[in-house]
Amino acid sequence: MSKAKILLAEDDVTMVSLLKTLLKMEGFDVVALHADADVPAAVRLEKPDVLFMDVHLSRQSGLEILEELRRSADTNSVPVVMSSGASVKEECIRRGANGFLLKPFMPDDLISILRQTIQSA
Length: 121
What we know:
The protein contains 5 helices and 5 strands.
């Protein structure tokens, strides 16, 4: 079985480093995007099993990116798990996210939601 691929869209460099280490230790293939990357283009290129995206990216809105992904036929089925320090779970789910993690979160919670999202996709 091939490794599940996680695409990270997170603007905190330290968080990206920690997430990459954790996810690789858990057996995932991980691709981290630069803070101002074109996330929809990266989704098309990488074809991840899950996009793990921060709601507030440095110069972009994760919610707007999520809506753009959901509007496009070639990206609307990609599972997306959103994350934020703000309690915006309902809004993320309403706009099309498959899951949400409130920061700070425990590593086990992240692994659990990613595995659940991949299984239900």
